[in-house]
Amino acid sequence: MTEFTLTKDADGVGTITWDVPGKSMNVMSFDGLTQLDACIDQALADDEIKGIIITSGKKGSFAGGMDLNLLAVMKEEAGDDPAKGLFEGTMKIHALLRKIELAGMDFKTKKGGKPIAAVLPGTAAGIGMELPLSTHRIFAGEDPKAKYGLPEIMVGIFPGAGGTTRMIRKMGTIAAAPLLLEGKMLDVKKAKGAGYIDEIAADPMAAAKEWVLNAKETDLVKPWDAKGYKMPGGAPYHPAGFMNFVGASAMVHGKTQGAYPAAKALLSAVYEGALVDFDTALRIEARWFTTVLMNPSSGAMIRSLFLNKEALDKGAVRPAGIPDQSVRKVGVLGAGMMGAGIALVSIQAGMEVVLIDRDQAAADKGKAYSETYLDKSVKRGKISEDKKDVMLGLITPTPDLEKLKGCDLIIEAVFEDPAVKADMTKKVEAIISDDCIFASNTSTLPITDLAKASVRPDQFIGIHFFSPVEKMLLVEIIKGKETGDRAVAKALDYVRQIRKTPIVVNDARFFYCNRCIIPYLNEGARMVTEGVSPVLVDNAARQLGFPVGPITLTDETSIDLGAKIARATKAAMGDAYPASSADDLIFWMEEQGRLGRKSKAGFFDYDEKGKRQGYWKGLQDKFPLAEDQPDLIEVQERLMFAQVLEAVRALEEGVVEDIREADVGAILAWGFAPWSGGPLSWVDIIGAPYAAERCDQLTAKYGDRFACPPLLREMAEKGQTFYGRFDPEAKAA
């Protein structure tokens, strides 16, 4: 399979074109590296070639990164020493990119090289950005949709093909560190400002050719290869540079709380690399890159946030044999915050939307939500005014249910009351066509029970969005006992259209996500009633990698919502309801009128603008702080096991059928410690035997909620892992 080809024109410009057959976007493979190396050698040896352009054969993109199978090849080549294989394989990539950078020049005199430019027709990410950074000048087109950057940190690694070392030496620590540590993909104008791109042109190939044919030998010498080079902002041993590194270290630990191995390794590679020459810095980068790749966190993050997420996005759990169910026209019942958000993401995907509410004013208010959002997009240059008008024209706000005729999907987002939902279901089903799928956006009410109001329960399904809809990446699809395959396919195809990641779960109380989130919140509340400092509880969670701690999250989601859920659950479960001190705390806070951020009073005090001012000191009047505070690890394990054991039970009970959904769903829905790869991956990292042992210890000390599930006990006894026992790829084979 040919991935790189070399051609030359009459003017003496050699063009190396990257085009991986069968892929919508180029990815770097083992064969690709070999072919690129050969093309570079051939171009440098050909006297007729005066300069070289590296570009892509893909319309609208340059490359999307590395084929992760390349890492497996590196490990396999080393046999019993995978670290050696990864390091040596990484150094081979460095050698190739360094060859491009030096371009045949004499290293001492810096003469005799051939100019090499990169032309990026569009998006360039990962090694697809690191390769251009090794060339002498980078040209990009004017496509506003194209994105450029080094997003490796988002999947648990860091730019290890020279991107880290080159960006630091090109931009300096303060300018480059945020780009490397946040992994943001930038549009073409911002990418130029960040140093990823040198020139934007309407015809980047023509601009690159002109530059290549007129480049001087001095244009080929990178700053770090020139005599007298000094790092922008100062090296670590320079007074200014020292402070830069202090600031970078503080930024890393402030953002990650020390939970992400890749971030710490990146900072080490940057600091140590800045103390030595460029080629030695590349070796240091390769060593730290290897260290990260050997860390189980890296493999877990890559698996969940890249491989598994991509598989779910492409329909890995879609029922077989069901034809395309793409949505053309969706009816949204309820124009409140959720309904308005659903309407927005639907029109962004090009669907017609009928937005229903009790009166015209309420429906119009729901449409106004989209207008406000799109106005901001126009202001930021993301869409044109004409595009905004086209999208808004897709929404029909109305109280008239008759307008739902012609819809092929209904999403109900009305008040969380079974009677209200049942009444709406009956009214709407009397109007819509026989093949229209009806979905409820409920977050807690059982889908099977709601489907009893339907005359066609096989076409009734749950589509649970998270708030705010336009920002949250996950959608939870819930199958009732009678939900049919076409309804599941319809829901999955809809979620794919709005570019979110779906998970499909079976009906059960709180489904999957809320089933795991609620114990997390409750465990934090229990600890407060025990006298544990809320500061310790929240920071323990943040140091595990959670975006916010359980006390803060409760304030954000509203305390009275927690009280409402507790009462409804108790009413449904009766004597089986597991009452706890967490309920006592929530009900007491509700009585005090401290309902969270929305009331500007909760576990935190707030100013008039709703900004947190610190934890409410009155909390200790009711629940005094214990003189002896628990160990940090003890607090963290209580918070982790409270969630993880529910994930295990959900798998055990068949609520979750695919372990990929359990892990990806947890990370995307509530930010479960992304470094771990998800709750089941976390158990695989710490080992089932240790997890079972800790369950027994926590149960003895805190109660049966930590009881070891039979599945986990069995796996501990057999020395199994979740991805060993339930590997979806193995099952498919």
Structural notes for this entry:
The structure is a single chain. This protein is α/β, with parallel strands linked by helices. The chain contains 31 helices and 19 strands. An eight-stranded mixed sheet has the order 12-11-10-13-14-15-16-17, sandwiched between helices. It has a six-stranded mixed sheet with strand order 1-2-3-5-7-9, with helices on both faces. Strand 14 (437-440), helix 17 and strand 15 (460-465) form a beta-alpha-beta unit. Helix 13 (337-348) packs across helix 14 (360-379). The longest helix has 21 residues, at 82-102. The radius of gyration is 28 Å and the shape is globular.
Helices and strands in order, then pairings?
Elements: E1 4-8, E2 13-18, H1 30-45, E3 51-56, E4 61-63, H2 69-77, H3 82-102, E5 116-120, E6 123-125, H4 127-133, E7 137-140, E8 148-149, H5 163-171, H6 173-182, H7 188-194, E9 199-200, H8 204-214, H9 239-256, H10 261-273, H11 278-294, H12 296-313, E10 329-333, H13 337-348, E11 352-356, H14 360-379, H15 385-392, E12 395-398, E13 409-412, H16 418-429, E14 437-440, H17 447-450, E15 460-465, E16 474-479, H18 485-497, E17 501-506, H19 513-529, H20 534-542, H21 550-557, H22 559-573, H23 581-591, E18 604-606, E19 612-615, H24 619-622, H25 632-652, H26 659-670, H27 679-686, H28 688-702, H29 710-718, H30 722-725, H31 728-732
Parallel strand pairs: 2-3, 3-5, 4-6, 5-7, 6-8, 7-9, 10-11, 10-13, 11-12, 13-14, 14-15, 16-17
Antiparallel strand pairs: 1-2, 15-16, 18-19
Helix pairs in contact: 1-3, 2-3, 3-11, 5-6, 6-9, 6-10, 9-10, 10-11, 12-26, 13-14, 19-21, 19-23, 19-25, 20-25, 22-23, 25-27, 28-29
